[in-house]
Amino acid sequence: MISEDYKKNVSEYVTDFIPEQFRSACFNYLMAYPDIREIRLRLNGPVSFTLPESNLVTGMICTKDDIGFTVNRMTDGSYFKYEEIMRSGYLPLDYGIRCGIGGEVYTEKSDIKVLKNVSYVNIRIPFTFLTDTTELTDLIKRSQYRCSVLVFSPPCTGKTTVVRSAAYSLSSGAHKKRVCAVDTNYELQLPYSSEPSLCEYLTGYPKAKGIEIAVRYMNPEYIVCDEIGTSGESEAICQTQHCGVPLIATVHASTFDDVKRRKNILSLLENNVFDYAMRIVKEGRNFRYEIKSILQI
Q: How far apart are CA 166 and CA 177, in angstroms?
């Protein structure tokens, strides 16, 4: 359980990136609404907060200078040092926070070459770091730690929390398996001390390269990664499975049928990469899991 002091520390850290004239108000919002999951700043638009069931819109309007202040603060005054990762749409911060960045870009052959005129910043605040994954880990244990599981749901419905928790649970406690988490977006590692585990984190690695390195050099008993979907990732995962290393991964989808509509995911299913698919279903503020054999979907 995360303490109130910890939440306060995270809130203070986050609001330090906010322009000074909005900082106190944003901190007060975070303290008054503990369910806030995002602070969204948009050029010439209102600062807003994302709650589980609603959006809280304020009267604070961001100017170009306000957005510039926040980006400058998040990049330690060195925009170009972080430009490459920002072209991927985000900035990693402390406490497992990922900040979405967007605006105007210059492209070349569909590749983003330059990000300029940042017009929105979305600070995602993960106050929930672990969740109960007993249903998932029990399934894995019954398979004698050999099954691969694809976890899916729409955005912002707990996929990252599930795979982070699964990586931690499988590498500690009664399981104590060697787990390698390919943490491309800096979100899977726990930002606070807890029970020692056998999980190693490849932080910032592109998923395809991270999976390859994990298999070749880390000798894992499980690999965990978040948000797969590109052809390169699918190819790397297929190679992983040929080496006999099971995988837990996530993908954006709403239903089992949606999973099969994803071209690169379908190729993984057709190549028998995954044994099970686990759907996360949001019910109010709670979640439940639906697990099916790939042969059933």
A: 11
